[in-house]
Amino acid sequence: MITSTLNVHFHKGMRIITVGLLALVTLVGLPKATSAQSQNDGSIYSRFGLGERVSFYSSKSQAMGGGGYALSSSQYANFANPASLSDQFLTRFAGGFTYQSINAQADGQPQGTLASGTLSGVSLSFPLRANRTGMGLSLTPYTSVSYRVDTESSVVSDPEGGVSIPLITSFKGNGGLYRFSTGIGHRLTDALTVGASSELIFGILEENQQTLFNDLSFVDRSVSKATRMHGLTAKAGFKFVVPGMPDGKGLVIGGTIRLPKMMTATRSQALVDKLDRDTLGTVIKGDIKLPLELGFGVAFQPDPRWTLIADVSFEGWSEFESDFDLPGYSTSGTSNVSNGTRISAGAEYWPAARRPFAPWSSKIAYRIGFYTDQSYISPNVDENIGSIGITGGLSLPSLVPGTTIDMNIDVGRRGTTSNGLVRDRYIRFGLNINFGERWFERLPLG
Amino acid sequence: MPGKSLLRSSFLGLIAIVFLLAGCDDPSTVGMGLVESQAGDPEVSTLSATLSNSDGLADMTGGTQQSGAFRALFGQVDDPVAGPFSMTGVMDFVPGSDVDTAFKVTSVEFAELLLNLDYVYGDTTLDLTLNVYEVDQAWDAVNARADTFIVARSLVTTVTFTPEPGMIRIELPTEWVNDHDADLRSDSFADEFHGFSFQVSDGNAIGGIHLSSSELRASSVPGDTVGFPLSKVLSTSSLQDGPQNSDLFVLRDGAAEAASLNIPIDPDLFGQAAIHRSILRLDVDDLTGLYPVGFNRPGLAEVGLRAVAEDNETRLDVLEVAVTEDGPLSFESDALANILQSANLGNSGLDRFELYIPNESSTVDFVAIRSGTPQNMGPRAIITFTPLNR
What's the structural domain count of chain B? Predict the structure, then answer.
């Protein structure tokens, strides 16, 4: 009895710690994620278009190559496909960070190393009817703008004195678009599950050029251009369990479609110094069209311990339209935008599948994956920017049932050094907390 | 439970790595070729500034024992470079502490002015003939400027003296003493008497009477002399002809004109820019060899620059710089750069700049600034800027 009481207190304590850590992650990460000021140490490719495309559907998906359109899991809310939200019997709150280090190379220039930490995403999901109908809310990055390039030069500021003054011109970009998704999934039959979500896409893309003098005679000023946009779009998805599979095996196919959307946008330019911010000209209004997105995936379980997935996605960026010039896109007709594609695959090994009383070490899930993609935009019309990478991760169970702490890694490269471009080699570490608990339980009376 | 410690250490380790490394960076030039400027590269441009006389704010030449100018300047001079210039000095007195009851009960028999001449500009070899007038109405010295009009019609006396620093004694006529006997002994002397105006009718110099050690002295009976110290001063001038040499702009202390200076920084002329540094440079001619022997021309110590708003009322003193013998006047400060920046963006309402002589000067000294274009060392603004919208 005493042991039982201690266990209850211990579990409660762990739960508080877990929720506390999750809250810390959210509180620390969210301001960084939503601020347009804090980060500019990512890839130079994030400068182009609306920024570098980012997807985070769940920490499990992240470790398995980043797909998951057919992935089913009662332990994760999978936002890749709103139909997957039906697979829930616990209320879940999840969030995480990603730390990224990039080594950038270009012909004839010394290597540069940049590092940053950002919010991967936060989500809340809960069952309306356990394992039949579920809802989910998530806030995740959609694009990311995060770069900084410094160049040194000099200027003879007083021609009569003839002294050359060194200066640094720092080009920075930060911000990005975020996706706030509200979705619902419902199992129509044992084989067919459907889902839909509304997605509010919003954010700020900011470009900044700062001129810095190491001389008190000069006033450091920067020119800042901010493009704000928002729009509401919809996504629909399905999952289908292929019938007739042998006992112990399962095959699921899934797909999603997200409709194109015209977003409302404004652009302003300002001159900034340490004391003041002056708006330049007037705020310009316009529209930016987000393209159609299609996703298709397969998930296969040869036995309960193994899950294999493969996914492909397509984004029709060739139909992209904007009333504003963007890096790589000109309203006058010159455009380096093309359709974006992504292919990924991954595997999970979970020794404790269907063994609820397995030892702790057996409850660790091991994940691995790979992906390759072609970016929707390139600095050079003759050169597509592609990425290739491998992913991996561990999911560590906690003492709170239904709660895991996931550590992921993503190692890859992007771009090329030919045609004056840059090759990024990056490594990303993801730390995610996935908290699950039964809520809204009906207490027995009497 | 072995997993518990593993979990805890792994988790805390990763947290530490994330937070420690998130701030590390090594910004580089990699990718420079992929970043075209949203603005241009920093440039330097030398703009021709225009310097002219205008009917703006005249020099502040009024002062009291507490503040403002400290000399009454009077005289006329034909400067070989700057041309003719004249000033009228106005001064007023208040009863001193020794004006007591004993003085007030007996008629005033004698009165004189004892004036501390501590400034002379011009030809010191010629005598000055000075007409002393009585001021007809009350006047205010606080914040009074060189273009103030003072009515003084009653000639009191005329004296001639050599314009050299030292005490000047001017005996007031018996007729004037008799007329002002009651005033001098009245408790309301300050209301009844408004001072003297000094105007020179002959000579080629301008003198300055210092507020200190100058007084009106009066005697009732021999041996009982009391003092009325100089309490306030004002120097007035009228608009003058330009300098003899058109290549020079004369910036003179005590002048009724303002020296306006325009810098073509507005976006229509210059384009929008981020201004990092502004130097306003005015070359000063030392005028060596242009003055005859005996012509005294003290030098100015400082020149100030202020911004004037479009309402022609709001003024902001930007900075004051020292006048050196061998260098140009060079105005440079963050404040100047910020004013020009706001003007360039059309946010400031800046109309022009003005040059001024600080109040502490109280002279008629001048500097001769080279006119013309920057190529021949005329007034110029050297702007370091980043062009916008290129």
Answer: 2
Block residue for tokens 């390039």: A149
Of the candidates B338, B351, B353, B333, the residue with the CA atom closest to the CA atom of residue B275: B338
Q: Is residue B330 part of a domain?
A: yes
Residue of A138, A147, A194 whose CA lies nearest to A171? A147
CATH number at residue B338: 2.60.120.970
| Residues in chain B, pLDDT under 50 | 1-4, 6-7, 20-25
Residue A384's Cβ-count burial label (10 Å; 0-12, 13-18, 19+) is middle
pLDDT for A320 beyond 70 = yes
Q: Are residues B122 and B47 in the same domain?
A: no
* Chain A interface includes B50 (CB < 8 A): no
Residues A196-210 have a mean pLDDT of: 94
Taking residues A363-387, what's their average pLDDT?
93
Is there a contact between B277 and A218 if contact means CB atoms under 8 Å apart?
A: yes
The answer to whether A40 touches A172, Cβ cutoff 8 Å, is yes
Q: Are the C-beta atoms of B305 and B278 separated by less than 8 Å?
A: no
Q: Are residues B190 and B310 in the same domain?
A: no
Do B79 and B99 share a structural domain? yes
CB pair distance less than 8 Å for B2 and A361: yes
Q: Do A221 and B30 touch (CB under 8 A)?
A: no
Distance CA A112, CA A105 (A): 7
Contact B7 A405 (CB under 8 A): yes
The verdict on B270 and B315 lying in the same domain is yes
Is residue A440's pLDDT more than 70? no
Query: What CA–CA distance (Å, rounded) separates B77 from B74?
Result: 10
Closest partner residue to B37 (CB to CB) among A106, A116, A209 is A209
Does B105 contact A at CB distance below 8 Å? no
Whether residue B194 is contained in a domain is answered as yes
Q: What is the pLDDT of residue B5?
A: 53
CA B183 vs CA A42, A327, B150, B175: distances in Å:
87, 86, 21, 14
What's residue B11's pLDDT? Answer: 54
**B40: DSSP letter:** -
Phi/psi of residue A62, each to 5°? -60, -40
Asked if the Cβ–Cβ distance from A223 to B22 is below 8 Å, we say: no
The model's pLDDT over A220-245, given as tens digits with 9 standing for 90+, comes to 998 889 999 999 999 999 999 999 99
> Which of B178, B205, B236 represents a domain boundary (last residue)?
B236
Q: Which of residues 274-313 of B touch A (CB under 8 A)?
A: 274-277, 279, 281
- Together in a domain, B216 and B284: no
Residue A343's pLDDT band (cuts 50, 70, 90): very high
**Is residue B195 located within the same domain as residue B341?**
no
Q: Touching check for B149 and chain A: CB below 8 Å?
A: no
Higher pLDDT, B382 or A352: B382
Report yes or no on B117 lying in a domain: yes
Q: What is the DSSP letter of B312?
A: S
Write down which residue in B201, B236, B271 finishes a domain: B236
User: Which chain A residues are closer than 8 Å to B35 by Cβ?
Assistant: 44, 47, 149, 171
Q: Please name each of the domains of chain A with its CATH number.
A: 2-432 (2.40.160.60)
Q: Hey, are the CB atoms on A109 and B35 less than 8 Å from each other? A: no
Q: Are residues B210 and B76 in the same domain?
A: yes
Structural domain containing residue B322: 43-54+257-387
* Tens digit of each residue's pLDDT (9 = 90 or more) over A269-316: 888 887 777 777 778 999 999 999 999 999 999 999 999 999 999 999
Backbone angles phi, psi at A47, to 5 degrees: -70, -25
Rounded distance between C-alpha atoms, residue B73 and residue B200, angstroms: 11
Which residues of chain B have a CB within 8 Å of the CB of A147? 31
Contact residues on chain B for A280, CB-CB shorter than 8 A:
272, 345, 388-389
Partner residue facing B274 (CB), from A223, A399, A421: A223
On chain B, the residues whose CB falls within 8 A of the CB of A221 are: 274-276, 341, 386
For residue range A55-75, list pLDDT tens digits in order. Answer: 999 999 999 999 999 998 888
Q: What is the pLDDT of residue A380?
A: 86
Query: When comparing pLDDT for A170 and B288, which is higher?
Result: A170
Task: From chain B, pick out residues whose CB is under 8 angstroms from the CB of A97.
Answer: 18
Q: Is B265 in the same domain as B341?
A: yes
* Cβ separation B30–A111 shorter than 8 A: yes
CB contacts of A414 in chain B (<8 Å) are none
Q: Is residue B30 part of a domain?
A: no
Task: Kindly provide the ipTM of the predicted complex, given to two decimals.
Answer: 0.74
Residue A4 confidence (pLDDT): 44
- The answer to whether residue A409 scores a pLDDT higher than 90 is yes
